Protein 1
Amino acid sequence: MTVYAYAESTSCVQEGTLRFHLAHTSRAPARGTVTVEDVAADLPMLSERFDGPLWTLEIPADWPSSLYRAVFTADEGFSEGFSDVYFVVRAARPNSPILLSIPFPTWQAYNRAGIPGESIYWTEQPNRAAKVSFDRPGGGPPPERWEEGMLRWLGPAGYDVDYCSGLDLHDGAELLSGYRLLVVNGHDEYWSAGMRDNVEEFVRRGGNLAVFSGNTCWWQFRLEDDGRTMVCYRDAVMDPMAAIDPGLTTVEWSSAPVNRPENGLTGVSFRRGAGTWGPYMQRMHEESYTVRFPEHWVFAGTGLGEGDKFGQGAIGYETDACDFVEVDGVPLATGRDGTPPSFVILATADLRHWHRYGQGGMATMGVFGLGAGTVFTASTVNWGNTLHDPAVDRITRNVLDRLSSRTGGWEIIGGVGTFRALTVFGSRLYGVAPDDSLFVRDVSAQNLRWQRAGTAPQVVAMATPREATTVHPIGLYGLTSDDRLVYQDPEHGWITIADAPSGGVGLGMVNGEFFAATAEDLWRLSPETSEWALVDSSGGAVSLTAMNGRLYVVDGEGRIRTRLPVTTPAEWTDLCDAGGCTVLTAHAGLLIGAAPDRPLFQRPPLPDL
């Protein structure tokens, strides 16, 4: 006799009750034994009898938030006579800054795959179902158990996390508000509009998202029958919602009429990714990632260098990627596929040869800012099952540690270099090296290479006006070591336009006026005069810049200080740690700093957390 069981919900809060429905192939009443185990901890939690078509679990307050498995075994005890049901116990109140989501929608989508009318798989089968119910057995993890490795790693690795069902995110704004970091793990392919809206808003408001998953947020689905029916036509022609509210049509997120690429949430997409299926799935174990930005905080402590391979086997059978181009040997996201411009590529895997096994493409691990929050993506389904790899372990810890705390601060955006002056002109970052060479690269969080762009003789500080005035055209301006104010004329090179305060260390431009700093004093030069006027103390400046009508200095104590560019004395307000930088510029709401033999880095001009 075979027993069949399902739960009335995929999750239940601590001290709540969860009811299970039972049936079997015999006409006799359903009787037997039920055991409940904590899947993540691999611990038995309960064993008791069931008798009849219903069994109710009263969840104790001391059961930890986790993924659980209830196993129902009929009295007959035949090996085929059991049914297992997976469910999550949610924390009654946040017990951790980290919330991990279990992809029950994806598990249900694959339930009874290939059976006509019973599953929304396979994708192109004409007799696939458009609607499937959670009120039926099955809907547990797939045979490959993409999620299991990370679930079993977290506790022994020292991470006490809270769990939720992916369905809890559908109306989950309040749930998410209690956490710093949401973790998506394994294979989280199916997202409702409510899930996506709530997670995106969570990140924009300052929460963070770590996607240790691949093929993520690929299909949109809807819920009906109080959330117990999953709707996914996979075809706008068949979906009646296409004529009512096109944005809720159950097709791929990037497809018409939804036209909302998942890149906006994850930075990547399976459209540029790769897949190897069926008898070729084992090909994934042959592949590795290649490091493309070793200075980034994600790789801290790994010992990996540029071009090194790591994580063999972490490249799962499905990967995600963004559209990118190689610029002087550095991958740069183009944004043509909907990837945000702040996306930074950390590692890549060239899987174009997979076109023989399913889908050729790439895998691109990356990180980007979304509103006030940060999103990291590993871009592969098998990451969590490769945590025995020291590099994968270290990277995962770096992501969890940083994104689950209120760290803020400086972030590396380029390799090691030495510059004595920086400024931004247009969208280009300019730097002057100790040998007077002038270098340029795009302003980007990607680790782009510097390109030589001429010389800047004796220039020790630079600035660029926000816009041209009748007196000063837009362009590069500088202070020199022999106390001159210079301008780089497009036709004649660097020309002197005025004398400068002796010992200048920083230059800024605000509303057509120059401000120069020495170690002791702050000076001002207006367009109407050629004489510098003493304004106030410089606050012990080492460097100075300006942005959005405000002055910023690095002082001798390693702090960033700021004040308004008024012509009378004013207090320099302590803002944040300077991160060791000795040269400062600013652009688009970010401070950009450099120091001898250190990487280039940036941060928002906000107080330290």
Protein 2
Amino acid sequence: MTSRLCRPAALLALLAACGDDGNRDTAATGNQPSTAPTSLTEATTGPTTGDLPTGTTQTTDSGAASEASATGPGTTDAPGTTTDAPGTTTDVPGTTTGGDDCLPPDALILLDRTQSMHRTPDGQTPVDAPAYASSKWSLAIGAIESLTAAPQDDTVRFGLELWPRDPGGGACVTLAERIEQNKTATNPHCEAGEVVLPSALGNGAAIASTLDPTTTLLCNTTPTGAALITAGEHFAANKEPGREQYAILVTDGADWDLSCPDPSPLTAVQDLAEQGIKTFIVGFNGEEAQLGATAYLNDLACAGRTAKGFPGPCVPTADGFVAVDGANIPVYLQADDAVDLEAALQSVAGQLCCGCEKTCDAPEVLFALDRTLSMHRTPDGETPVDAPAYASSKWSQAIGAIEQVVGGGLDTDLRFGLELWPRDPGGGQCITLAERILDTKQATNPACQDAEILVPPALASGAAIADAVDPLTTLICTTTPTGTALETASTWLVDHAVPGRQQYVVLVTDGADWDLSCPDPSPLLVTQKLAAAGIRTYVVGFFGAEAQAGAVQFLNDVACAGQTAKDFDINCKQMGSGYQAQDPNSLVPLYLQAGNGELPQTLTTVADEILQFCIPG
């Protein structure tokens, strides 16, 4: 099966809605020797993904918390998405599983049938009568039918729950009645869901027969918590040894807290997680996202252990995971339209299927390359003497290494991009490598400028990246705005996020001078913000002499914040809005340290590790 595209957005807990619909319902209430690693688990960062054959157990590095304890990173994550605690190792996803290696998992789709689903994703009333194909209700049913169709229903035991339950007797309403007559359902408030089709192989046709956007009824109030409890009861009654179980909640996020705050959806998802059941959160909304549902759905995705970059955007509590404080970037599967919704659901199927090749949407990998003046030196801090090419300079080696990696065929599986920082404002203010080495000209660009993305992440971008930079002609600039560089990367990646597609930053820097020239914004805080958006940051310290000037501690903190540090669960601690190094005085690199001639292998290892968690389809 092939993977599709998707894209995240934002929410919290909605405002007024009539039985979830917008019309108020009055009844609702030190310089270490650097050797190029052969694997990143050996030399650094380890987000490894838990895409194990269904029914197997995942192991983590020593010190990682057990999934049952939910006391910190180290729990199993959503298969094929991100990883357990960074630094752990798992079976490589993307392999074909079948026979005795796996049992097709149970995947119960929990479809929100509340009245707000009559609208379009941007909150308008549909005008495309009589089918109203632009309504969220029609679009959701179409996407679910596509998800569960053969042959995918031979690899996953799909089931279907509608919530709230339709009590019959005309209490719920059709899509046309809701749109054309503004008719309101009169079903009892906050009823449980109903499992209309238990999980089974070959269920695609039955699901298609059960769901019809014109006749399947919409009901009043939004009992999300009760729906999740109904799912838990179904899973408990059908539990089999070795068979994994998943909930797939498809909702527009509207009105749960106004109409049916109890039982708590968050508690219900955390309880499912304690039973080993992960919950995928698909937020199919546009208007509602802007009205406050993001934080709420982010919490559910973290509690369900399927958030993008898990556990990056999540923090453990006594009851289970929740999103980091102030998280306002969707880390659930957020869909703004029909294409996004189908892609979000297909990305889930690509992770769960048994007896098939698990696939994913090719990840985005943005190289953020330090172009500051100190890059003219060699890795051991000397002035190059190998004119005219100065191949021994860090600048030449860095560009050559990136070109080697992106031009070696990996750009068919990874969406590589290139950012240079700081930005070259033009007008001859930055200088060439030769001008810097020979001291014939001084850079005069404004201090602490933002970065520039020369090549946005895309497939087959290797040639474009090679064309965009040349060590002899691409200019280097003054000051070291590391934090601003990471902010530029964050802005682009968040703005272009696609649901189900993982995103990474690879910061290549010599670590020099950031705290003296451009301490604000803090690189540590910006990297923590990236992690909160589900974006991991690999830190490559390409230097030697600068390590002795304090860069080790700084880059250790950034690697921990980026959740890619070596032995993350042992060497990093949570503080405030994210992670930093456990020992602030340690001179042992937790990031990827690359010395003379080592950068190509180091960057290749990063790319290979990212591909270990994702076989693009």
Protein 3
Amino acid sequence: MKLNFYTKGIGLTMMVGCFLFFLFQSCKSSAPTSATLTAPYVDGLEEGYPSRVYSNLPKTLYYRAIEMDMPQSLREFRGVWIATVANIDWPSSPNDPYAKQKEDFIKLLDYYQSLNFNAVIVQIRTAGDAFYPSRYAPWSKYLTGKQGKRPDTLEDPLSWMILESKRRGFEFHAWLNPYRATMNMEISELSPEHDVLNYPQWMVKYDNKYFYNPGLPEVKSHLLKIIEEVVKNYNIDAIHFDDYFYPYQVSGQVFDDEDAYRRYAKQGQSKADWRRENVDDLVFAISQLIQSEKPWVQFGISPFGVWRNISQDPRGSNTQTAQTNYDHLYADVLKWTENKWLDYLIPQLYWSTDFEAASYRELLNWWSRNHNNTTIYIGNGAYKIRDNADPAWNDPMELINQLSLSNMTPHVYGNTFFSARSMFQKNQDVAQLIKNYHYEFPVLSPIPHRQTIPPPSIVDPILILHGEGYAFQFREVVKPDYRYALIYTAPTLNDLQRRAEETNFQKIYLDDNDRFVVPILSFEGKPYIALSFIDRFGVETKPLVYKIEGKLLTRTE
């Protein structure tokens, strides 16, 4: 979906009537004051604003609505993964004071906002733990230094992270790792609340870690409760899984789920098919759960970049990877997209453009052909920049060229970078190149291929003085269905229509305090203004367009 601007003419008489009505409602106690200007124009203003506004254009309103068509705004997913496991991206240290951790998170957000990114994918469950108060998992040691230890604050860290992200215009995707239970075998480091200690029968030891056994119905039920807790309690935009389902296979080791296979497999069903069915069942159940609880919350998965090699399946990609989603991780990604269980997919294409065994170019085209009407974004391996045996990554233009290919490829709607620190603490020159070549202007994130509910109508606002500029004031509180207000300001009507360089764009998060008066944050003397709203599904209302006709004078001028 893209933006469509429209305007609605407003008669002079109705406008004057509305303004007078608001004046008497909000300023009944204000005594009239004398003025030397002719025909003072009275505006309804909330407490703390000037009580009178005058137009220096006698008998003329200081702004008017304009009927015009607007081009649709661009939409592109520009995401970054913020990994918390092993403190890869955040927090910098689990032993930092909570205030320092907050400061570091805001620095990450501000940095990627300055690069015109529009989504963060934040890891809130790494290995049977939680970055939020949970009934089903202990606090993460990567947040507090010791698993099960509460952070030194009364606030909910996840609620805070979501709010700060949305205030900067980011979608917040809650990233959980479902099946990984620990990162090592050190039982003594676990909280007494951890599932490894409470439900050892659910666990499989493999590759020096504990994993939840996907073949157990009790595990599936438990994981659904974890997802339900997050969906119900937090204002997230998406639930997100990465590529870890059954673990990557290690030579000489066996994932011992034989007992569960004998108990629960269908007659004649191979273990490989049974394992894939276990993962399918979880993905389907989570999709259904989210749709029943909050249908506007998306469900997305970021699988390993290769479904199957062409040597294994004629439908596979022309690649030669040692492991694949289907054969080794038991993740039948194509089945999920064919059945419309996901809202988006972010295949991890962490190879260079023409890498022989698995080229970015080949896999980009393969996922484009096999999208199955599921929204596709591409995962890019920023962590490899200047830090990989493949010499292609020494070229600072490698990622920029990959984005150029993505932009030219059908059915691909954006990119996500792993991980945040790789272009924050280093490689900032490459991040700046991405902005210069591809992310020069902010854009909206896409609406996934899904059914949406039309947003409710908006009552036309009035324009009032606010600080050094203006704000939109509404006759009634803006409904909670809306997440953001979008405001464009431009010096000319032509600039506004073309979204030229001189046009400013603001995406303002509507929390509980911003649903009656919405400020125009960067007016800068640009008289043409367009206003619209984004609802929970990402659908935009038809924008209203205004022109400010003259300079406003207040009683103090």
Protein 4
Amino acid sequence: MPADNQPTPSIKRDRPWLIRTYSGHSTAKVSNALYRTNLARGQTGLSIAFDLPTQTGYDSDHPLARGEVGKVGVPVSHLGDMLTLLDGIPLDRMNTSMTINAPAAWLLALYIAVAEKQGVARAKLQGTTQNDIIKEYLSRGTYVFPPEPSLRLTSDTIAFTVREVPKWNPMNVCSYHLQEAGATPMQELAYALADAIAVLDTVKARGQVTSEEFPQVVGRISFFCNAGVRFVTELCKMRAFAELWDELTRERYGVTDPKMRLFRYGVQVNSLGLTEQQPENNVYRILLEMLAVVLSKNARARSVQLPAWNEALGLPRPWDQQWSLRLQQIVAHETDLLEFGDIFDGSTEIERKVTELKAETRAELARIDDMGGAIAAVEAGYMKQRLVESNLKRIAAIESGAQTVIGVNAFTEGEPSPLSAGEAAIQTVDAAVEREQIEQLNAWRAQRDARQADAALVALRDAAKEGRNIMEPSIACAHAGVTTGEWGQALREIFGEYRAPTGVGRAAGAGSDRLEPVRREVERVSRKLGRRLKMLVGKPGLDGHSNGAEQIAVRARDCGMEVVYEGIRLTPARIVNAALEEGVHVVGLSILSGSHVPLVGEVMEGMRSSGIADVPVVVGGIIPPEDAAVLLKSGVARVYTPKDFDITAIMRDIVTVVDGAGQKAA
């Protein structure tokens, strides 16, 4: 008999989930080396992070791409980049997840073109394109087109893959970013399911899929979820997800095959809760969050990717990613987790919480349905407003101490972390990467057959105008050497662009007695200024993570300031123009993509040229200490990072900055 701490040879273990790390930066060549290294270390699937220009359908030389190239992912501007990115990786044996939404059809087209270059049949390809545009309007912000044509593009990829690439997941409904935007477990359930309903209804309405094929479509829809540190609640959320999806697909869509109704999901655990303070504690948070999605066999994730412990500080190094990879491997291979059935079946506590979450979710889904569905709720600003309000409550709870975060608002005294010391504590992207990428892009354009590329773009536009499926024309564009920006611009010309509601205007602020002293200060300084203190909150560049900017805008309003906030994806010139026209007293810039130094510099140079250099600038984001020093030396009045969790204290500080600037000007 083996000892209890030894594996039993006769017990059959379940196969582990796909083990991934979400990665990519700098260039396709650098990222390819990283992928090969991670695969050699035991990673079992690829998860590709694309940079913001690629995610928003721009080439690396577009004005909005300045400072963003290669920062939060890999730039892929054409087939040559994709060939380099996947060099030496056999696509017939690889399961690849691509986090891409508005241009998902294009990146899938490039992936298929690479496979065809490798001699791999489309039918052998396995993987996922995220392709969830609705949550982009609510959270991540990398949308391009209005909702209706965006859903059409998603529907086109689904209809194409069900026949041509049947092992591919053409969409994963992404509730991950909903939680990052502040969603409660109920909101994550309800908004993700409302999103899936909108997509499946669009697929049916488009008529490209037969009724016989439709269950296959349902069976290929996957989800990409989040799990926070309250792991019992999160575990119950995942069980509720599985039961609600089974119910929805059976009752609404009449899918009779239980296999087609399975809730299939991958997960990256919560990054929102990672702390800059005592960052080594994040390792424990990540482990607990992972348990929420692997402990319950009946609701176990199909794939897991974990953030690195230091992602609140900046881009993780290969060693940091290896540490996250080893955590997964220890749970999968050293523990006995995979030797048992579902250890929560029959638990009255688990069942009670699952039942509660399901009831709350059904009620919220009914509200959204009464509004006309997810798209109507997006366009009305309802879901975005609810997310902003939930995030306000979360932050207020941390500020007040009602929600404990170790190292942040409790047990804050501690030793400095040797893991995060020194300039090499995080990965940095060389500024020369952008120049090199643009040079290679120009060389690509120069060597291709321009007439063939132009003809492919004409065919793409025609398909878009005529309502035909755009996948085959997109694959033809890939082979013809068309670039990401050209593909994006061709469809922008047909579909137009879109700016989603910010949710800030009608969001109910979190009332607090702590605001009263700040309100009195705002009144005092406003009287000195001769009018209401006015703040511009701006997001230069392509960073769509607007949560922080939204919270600052709402709190500034609640403190009595007049606030100008136009949402995401603004050029530095537009921010400067708004500051000039609105006559603001302070400019607050929010940048989380790592491009803070060039973008802030461009804004400040524009302000100097426009004669408003006396208006103070404050900056917030994931900003390493060395970069903070650079910004302060350049004239930035304040730099706020994730350690500055007390937004009311930030407001008090901003009022002090404006008061000091006014006295200096006088």
